[in-house]
Each structure stands twice: as structure tokens, then as C-alpha cells.
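Record type: ASSEMBLY
Status: queued
Input:
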Amino acid sequence: MKERTKGTECKIRGIEQEYPVSAKANLNPAMLVNAAIQGLKRSALSRDVVWDTVTEVSQEVHEAKITSSFGNNGCRIYNDMDHLEISTPSYNNPFDAIAYDKASEIYAFMATKEASTALKKEVFVHKNNVANLTVTEGMQRVKRGVIKTNTYATHGNILTLRDACKDWTRVEKSLIPWIITRILFTGAGDVVSGGFVGKEGVKFVISPRAMFTHQKSSFSTTMNRGILNTRDQPHAARRYWRLHDIHYEGLRSEYAIFMRDIAQALVICAFETGFLDDAPELEDPVRAFKEISQDTQECEWQIKLKTGEKTDAVAILRYYSEAIERMQEYTGEESKWDVIGLKAFKRLIDKLESRRIEEFVDGIDWVTKLALLVNYEPKSASDGISICNQYALLDENVSFYLSDSEKGTIKSYCLFNPKDSLAFAERELPQVDWASFTQRVKYALSNAPEQTRDYFKVAMLKKYGSEVRSISWSTMQLKAATVILDEPFMLNKDEMGDEIMDGQELAECLAVAKKLYPTKIIY
Amino acid sequence: MVVDAMDFDGMEEEEEDLEEEEVAEGDYVKEETAEYRDTGKEKEMVHIMDRLKERANKEKAADLVSKLKGKKKVNKKIMPYEIYATSGE
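Status: finished
Output:
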């Protein structure tokens, strides 16, 4: 086997995004989502697969019954509780985190475009986490009434070590302050029902998902949500633990997606190596989460520690950046992404510390949305809701990522400006080769990342689709053999070479894999 | 929802003093060919000044809303469409 990568490149991660699919005609959401999924298959971006629920034991009953499609890039596509859910293939660096997130946006848009054609109705898709509906007590939609906020998720996943998570109180101590304070740059921003803060109308918050938190940890993702989720489903060998983070949010900005990915991966590495064991403990984490989220004007972001002392969220972010530095000094292992990421993280913290928040317009989603609200000056709650929704709208503007030509002539109603967002990322992360970004998004539409096990799955499915009986994140059942893909980097492009792509027969491909992993290819 | 509209007191963006960078092929990372110019005492002074500047900025940090005034163009019509979605995940 070739030498493994270093630092955070050893961590695979991925995003599950639930997209709400709506039509002005108020059609049944399940029908809209199914039409979208069918549309992707019609446009040859995905195909039906049998999802292997025999070896991939689900901990939630409804999940075991979900019918899945498999995207050309290795993403899983399905109808989850009447949302279009797209789970990206696994990747191992922040540049791919953006590329596959943008590919997911394009899939979602293409899906609803096809659904519009099939249903002869205008169908919309958004990338956000809340739907604000005006309802009466009887839940009938009326022009005036009470605003109710429904939430759906963006889940972040990162594979960590089971040993590091055995003591869950350690997980809580190390990571809860992180999840709470990172919203200063990972918060999507949105308006939620004023009922959350005992007021009428709506309230703009940094992190809408924070407002739906009830406890430190929970198994359920839908009821009494925890800050941490305890779902034990590694989608890999038993020695791994998949940290299923239910507090990611639907982001559009390249900079924010990049920073969320690399900072999260760095924090998890520091956590595994014990550098977060002395993290500051918060007196009331749930309360702190909600209070910081609501503080969008004064930006004091005050937090009370268990010791009784008061600090602010930025000081806690600085604790994490210093712990990462100590870890890197100790391990001496860092990838190029880690160098870029830590430098950018420290710069971000410096700006947050001096409250130069307005400098993050077009870089951090909640700041950009607040800037839109401030400048549009909405006169009603429904205006405020519409502005946030329009930012989250996925329309023709997603084609920005596929065009090499002049990027500024796309007709779009969306208030997210991809040109400004990319310009911000270029300015703030100058070491990243943004000139190759369009090319990478194009690649990400129809190919899995080369570095992870998804490369093998996608290549096999493309070439020997009719030979595949079922698939899951960590298994592939072929007519000829079962392939256990329980190591995150196994059978990637480095390991397989060009054997799969260069016209080898299936038996030869399996023989190559068997030679590398004798016990994991079972005839 | 009415958002307070106060005058925006803009701040100039800080620029780093970096030399030219080259693109490394294939890994989407540009190879950094230059170090920061400031070193030693000079660097320490810059650091202290930065801290002081930050502190000064912090004093007038309040009211983000007013600082965001004029930061985004208002050139698209707002569409009054609701998202009709149930709770999920």
C-alpha cells in the first residue's frame, strides 16, 4: 500500500443535506420529492440501487425502509420524511468539501427542474434548515396568524476513533463548547418564529438549529435534540466512530464551507489525541447555544463557565486554535490543508475578537443574510422570511460553478451571489488554487473523490452496474463477490491504479482488490 | 420585521504583506514561496499594535446592524414564496 496522507487528510467526512422541495401550488411534498428523484434518474445523474440494509444495520426504523438512488459521484439520494436528501460521498480535504457540497446543490437544482417539467408546475428547492409557515391553531394556512418554524437538517459526518468516544462525558466536555461557539462562522443565519424568544413575528438568529436544542446529548435527531448525537453507526469497521453532527447548517459561501470543514477536522484530531481534555466547561450549554445564536446586534456572545467566570465565545474558539497548535507541535503531522486552515482560523478569530464582523459579508452566511435584511429593510415578518428563503434558493445561479466563461450573466432570483462569495474566498484563502475550482466541481458531479473508498464503488458501478446486487457506505455486493469496504481509504485510486478504468475485466479488478485486502473480497 | 437603520461607519480591510505565490499542480494548494517580511522586534511591535487596534475596534464594535448598512446591494425583487416543508431528519 502507498503511504497514507497526513493530519486531517486522514479523516474522511461528508455532508447529508435535506432539501425542502416546494411548489407554489402547495402540492404534496412527498410527491414533489419523488418527482425530483425520478428527474435525476431521467437526466442520467443517478440510478436505482438496492441499499444494503442487511449488513448496514440502521438504528432508526424508518431509515431501514428508505429506497435509495446512487448519484454518479457516489452520493446517496433519497426521500427522507418528505425532503430530498443528498448525502455526499466521503472526501478528505476542505477543497473537496466545497466541490461536493456545490455538486449536491447542482443535483438538487437539476432534480427540481426535472420535477417542474414532469408536474407542469413551478417547483422550488432551497438549501436551508427552517421553513416558517403562517398557521392557525388548526394548522390551516391562512394569510395572518401565528408563525411556526419547522426544521430539517444538515448533518456533518467525520470518522473518528471509537476508543476516543468510549467515555461520552469526555466527548461532551471536549466538543460541546466547540459546537456552540463555532456558529460564529458556521451559522447559516435565518429567521425563526418569535415564539422562541417570547415575542411575536420572527427573530433573526445566527444558528437556527441552535434554537431547536434541548439537551447535551441525544440519540434521536428529531425529538428533544441534543447538541451531540449518540448514534452508533460507523459505516466502517468497529474501531471507528462516525461523529454524526446534527448541528451543521445549509451553507452557500465557499469560505464558510471551507473553514467549517478544516476547523472541524482539526478539532477532531486534537480531540482524538487528548488535547481538548481541559476544554472550558460551560455552566448551561443549551442556554449558551441559544443566547449566542440570538446575539446578532451587540455581538457580545457572553458565556458563563461552570467556574462562575464569564468569557465570550471567541475566547473559547481561541482555546481550540491553541489546542490545535499544541497538537501539531506534538505530533509533527500536518497536511498543507492544515497549515492553510489553521492560519485562516487564527485570522478569523482575530477578526471576530475585534468584532470586525461586517468584513465577513459574502464569506459567512449569517452575516451576509443579516446584511441583506438590513439593506432591504423588510417591513413585515413575511418579508424577512422571503429574503432569507431567497438567499437559500437554488436556481440557475448554481450553473455559475460549471461555467468557465464570464460569470456574471446568469439570470437568477437568488440573493446569494456566487461571484461575490467566490471573490471573498479567493481573498481570504489566497493559498488555495481557486482557478481550478470550476474544474473540480465539474469533476465532483460525476466522479467520487479519488482518495477514499467511494472511488472504487463509483468506478465499479459505472462499469459493471449490472453486476451489482446491492451497495451501502461500507459494502458492495456483486454477483461474483462481496467487497467489505470498512476502511475509509481502501481501494482508492492510489491503490487500484488505473486497473478499473482501463478496460480490465471485473474478475481482474477483483483480483487486484483481493491481493490488497485478502479478507475483504469474499467470493 | 423592522431592522434599525443607522449610519454605517465602514472600516478598511487589512491586507497582508505577501510576496508572489505560485500554483502547485494537482493538489489545489498554491505553494507558498514567501515568508512574512516582519520578523523579530518589528514583528513584536506589529503584533502589539494589532492588539491595540483590535481593542480600539472592539470599543466601537456594538451594533452590527448599523455597520452592515450599505454592505449589500438591493437590486433584486423579493419573491413572497413560502417554503412548504415539514420537520425532518
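Annotation: The helical segments of chain B are 40-59, 64-67.
Annotation: Confidence is low (pLDDT under 50) at residues 1-25, 32-41 of chain B.
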